[in-house]
Amino acid sequence: MNDNSNWTPIGTVVGNATTSEFTFILKSFKSRVGDLVAVRMEVPDEARTGTQGIYVWGRVISINRYNPFFPYEAAQELSREGLSLRDTILSDSRDQLEAGVLILGCTPVNGSFKSLHPLTYPVQPAAEVLYPPAAAIRELLAGGIPGHTPLHIGTLLARPDVDIAISADRVVARHLAILAMTGGGKTVAARRILRELIERGYPLLILDPHGDYLGLRQKRELFKDTTVQLLYPHIAMTEQNRHIVEILINKMTEGLTEPQKEVLAELLSGVDPVDGESVLRYIKRLQEALGRKTGQAGDKRKLPTLAVCRRQLGAVENRLERMEWTNERMRQRLKQLHFEQMSDPQGRPEAIVAPKTVSILYLGGYDHLTQTTIASILLEALYEHRADLSNRIPPFLAVIEEAHTFIPSSREGKADVPSLETIRKLITEGRKFGTGLVLVSQRPSRVDETILSQCNSFLILRLVNPRDQNFVKQIMENLSEQDARMLPGFGPGQGIISGQAVRFPLLVRIRMDEDLIYSDLGDENFLEQAARWRPDAHAPVRARVADKVEQSAALPARRPKGQKTGPGHEPTSQSPAPPPGEPERWESVRRQFITDLRALGELEARTGRVWDKSRRKDKVSDYAGRSWDQLKGTGLSPARQKGLLALLEAVAGLKRE
Amino acid sequence: MATVNEPGKGRKLTVKERLRAPHLLTELVKVSLTQSSTTQMQFLQVLEGLAGTIRDMLENAGLIETVEINHQKLWAEMAGKVVSFVDGGMANVTSLGAEPLAVRVGSYTVTPGATGANRETFRMEKQLVAELFDTTSSQEVYEHLFEDPSKLRDAARFCLEVSAACQTLNRSPKPEFLFLHGALVNPVSAYADSDFPPFSTRGLEILLPPGERDRSGREREFVFVYLYLLNTLQQSQVNVASVVERASFSSLVSRTWLDWLKGQSVSPGARDMEKIKQRLSDYRISDSLLFHAILNEGEYLRPVEVDRNVAAKRPQYSYDVIGRYPRPMVTYVGVGPFAQPLRVEFFEEPPAGYETCIRLVIHSCRLMPNYAFPAGLDIVDKFAKVPAWMNRPINSTLAVQLLKRAMESGNPKMIEAAKRMLCGTKRDWLFRPDSTH
């Protein structure tokens, strides 16, 4: 039997009470929004012949404060006269506090608080509202979900002495969404949950586009018997996964027509991948094979099809090469961390997902499309391993940071994002196969609504954007209007947890794992960097050259072809025709190189001009086959486009000479 | 730039201007509607003439005083001085045979300029929830019933409010100023005849301090108890005053001053003064209406002694004791350009002087310039008031009990009678005839 003699009375129920909510007048300073309170009352017993005592449990969702003894016009008079209220006879001590309570359920007075039942009889008006001690609240919360493993995430927002645990079982199987604006504490919350799961040895995979979780590796000594590995993307080829090339072409380019697909299929079957060979290397070999095929083509009508295939393969190759290089550079900045190449998820999934292993896939440097492609390939492969019941890998939890990148809303116009369908499959089917997801996003309204609403639990921290707030209200059925109004007012790490991971929605303060903060990855100080910035060694050279160019531009123009000078040939008042624009110049010069299979590096060597080191291996024809506008589709900046035009014009000039 | 017509900023308003103030018009209409059409036509003209004449005499006789309106100065002077406000609230309980009584009196004590938790105190000084008369228990207030229960209620309320004020005086910190809401001394003749019941033992326990409860014989009667409480308050050496904001039809103050003016040099003569009094009477021009037309903001009449318990109305049974009742000093105070004047009453000139008390009243009113009522009394009024939500369930419970008893009896006439008692009128919708009758 519970003794409630030490439960402090904090108010009295007033107004119309229902089975879902009630209002009470609160004593000053005795409770706060988010507190759990109780009301003891009698309800009809099961047999309807008598009554039984129960505690009705509720959460304070609002507190209105007003002073009935301080009229508006007194405030006006005080302001007008420059008076302080305390110098007059006006009162400022009789604030009235009216608290709104959302009913969570009820427990029998003489039983355990662990089993919470729905309330089916309204709260008694004028009943005393009690403030239960921490032990009673702990018992209520400890009930959790019977038999489930608790994950301790923090404390009640209003009661630092009451820990809050969520159900690990529900998180790993039924998905969790962590939503908050930047600085709201979503990474802190995710790290807290991950830490609890690490301590239980649960296999974890983290897709980390910004390096928020790299600190886990640095602090790995805190996790005994746990491997924390940092991975960088590497899509390795095997006998079985050569279709990856087709996927990449589909995802990264405008795709192939049926005849072009046939050519590619023929090519793929003709070029066997070497086990462990990177997809990039394999694509280069495909390019070579396709080049040979073009040269030997008997049927000239196939040449355009072959050319398109080469172009698309080239585009994929370029993008992969560029992003690999960027990722490498970003990893080099973090020399103190050891990165490993990601194993093939198809062939060696156990190297990524294993008990007591945390795999952090660092996707920094890759553009969104590539990040989503990699995520799609990786998650698809891991899911297939679970779904075919081969038991090659254990159940695992994947944390997807920046979820709006991987599962964008249809309103974003990115329906073709590769990871969208994969994650949709995981979130709907994953529960059966133990592939849980934690979706983390700072812009919930940009996340796919259907996928997000499949999450059975939500941790909502601070959200200021009205669109995000409305979106959260739409997808969370049990988020009350008052709770929604609190979202912009939460401090860092404060929020509301709701859904199947908890018995009822709770306002929480997430515990900050300060020992996991990795200071080397803090925010960069750009103000300091700008103050320290000095021009590089070549800056004077660039300035001198620019001056010369300007001077030469000021000289008289060379005589146009066919135009005579001298007496009797004075220039008319009609202005000369304007010089041709870049698109026209490109059109005139590219025709000479449409079938040129030389590498661009060769042209650079021939002219002595440096254009783009990363594209030296590209074929000239890959670019010359495109119009000026189409060139933009290859990812060239305007400056690079002009550079390419100048390079081809220089080569054409050499040819003429 | 302030215009000359702007109240409180330029010159004082003339009687004519004051009479055109929108707030006064309602009073004018109320009074003039009760008169014949000819009188109605002349009412405004008469009032304007009388107010101008009377103001002229009062002003020249030095009976109109003016106080400076300066918040900063007043509140600086009041810093650290304890001020209490006392007011009562009565539950509106419908009686069904029994005579329930639910009154409470609260106090609000504040120290301007102080800080901290002790700056202000709210207390429910007295609460009286009982039956006026009940032979079956000891919860009654009076020893037996009287033909007019409302008089019993009023008498109990008068005593309870003064009793609460006396209790407030004994609190710590002891107030230096104490303001009550309502008349300081009420007429008692209506409650003083031989058939008016004495207070019960329980009534005395609630109303009187411990040493005074053991009374017997006539000492238990209202006139004696009320007089004792008023004397206690009067002898307290505290600045005690009461404030009345409601307009009444009384013209006691104006008549008293007009009588006094008869022998003064500003007066044309006693006959003319009688004519003025007659005019006031003919047109039912009350004190509040007259002084509304006369007094500017910050002005007050020199207080005048008023006898509320005149000998002519005293019952012989209590003639002597009523003669010992204090005669309050009454004044009217102009508290705002558009507000009705407040009636302020004292036992006698208070230790701090009339002017200090009236300055405090005016500046307390100025804290709510439109409502123009002392803020402290407004606060304690809200504090002590019995809200409607408290009245409603009591009345509902009583009604349900009555109906339940009637229905249990199974007598259709009894049920019908209960319905009529609850509805109050036989023309209520419940009794509307339909086509079957």
Order of helices and strands of chain B: HHHEHEEEHEHHEHHHEEHEEHHHH
Number of helices of chain B: 15
Mean pLDDT of chain A: 85
Order of strands in the sheet with the most strands of chain B?
4-3-2-5-6-10-9-8
Distance between the termini of chain B: 74 Å
What does the main sheet of chain A amount to?
A: 12 strands, mixed
Describe the structure.
- The complex is a heterodimer of chains A (657) and B (437).
- In chain A, the strands form two sheets. A twelve-stranded mixed β-sheet of chain A has the order 8-7-18-17-16-9-15-14-10-13-11-12.
- With 657 residues, chain A is α/β, with parallel strands linked by helices.
- Helix content of chain A is 37%, strand content 18%.
- Chain A has 22 helices and 18 strands.
- In chain A, helix 6 packs antiparallel against helix 10, helix 7 (258-270) crosses helix 9 (303-332) and helix 10 (368-387) packs parallel to helix 12 (418-433).
- Chain B is an alpha+beta fold and 437 residues long.
- Chain B has 15 helices and ten strands.
- Chain B has an eight-stranded mixed β-sheet with strand order 4-3-2-5-6-10-9-8, with helices on both faces.
- Mean pLDDT of chain B is 85; it is low at 1-10.
- At the A-B interface, helix 1 of A face helix 4 and helix 13 of B.
Q: Quick gist of this model?
A:
Chain A is an alpha/beta fold. Chain A is 37% helix and 18% strand.
List the helices and strands and how they pair.
The complex is a heterodimer of chains A (about 650) and B (about 425).
Chain A: E1 8-14, E2 21-26, E3 36-44, E4 51-66, H1 72-81, E5 96-108, E6 128-131, H2 134-142, E7 150-156, E8 163-167, H3 168-174, E9 176-179, H4 186-199, E10 204-208, H5 215-218, E11 227-232, H6 243-252, H7 258-270, H8 279-296, H9 303-332, E12 339-341, E13 357-362, H10 368-387, E14 396-400, H11 403-406, H12 418-433, E15 435-441, H13 449-453, E16 457-460, H14 466-475, H15 481-486, E17 494-499, E18 506-510, H16 526-532, H17 539-553, H18 582-590, H19 600-607, H20 620-624, H21 628-631, H22 638-656
Parallel strand pairs in A: 9-15, 9-16, 10-13, 10-14, 11-12, 11-13, 14-15
Antiparallel strand pairs in A: 1-2, 1-6, 2-5, 3-4, 3-6, 4-5, 7-8, 7-18, 16-17, 17-18
Chain B: H1 15-19, H2 22-32, H3 37-60, E1 64-66, H4 71-78, E2 83-90, E3 100-110, E4 120-131, H5 149-169, E5 177-181, H6 201-207, H7 222-234, E6 239-244, H8 252-261, H9 270-282, H10 287-294, E7 299-301, E8 304-305, H11 319-323, E9 329-333, E10 342-346, H12 354-366, H13 375-384, H14 388-409, H15 412-423
Parallel strand pairs in B: 2-5, 5-6
Antiparallel strand pairs in B: 1-7, 2-3, 3-4, 6-10, 8-9, 9-10
Helix pairs in contact in B: 3-10, 5-7, 8-9, 14-15
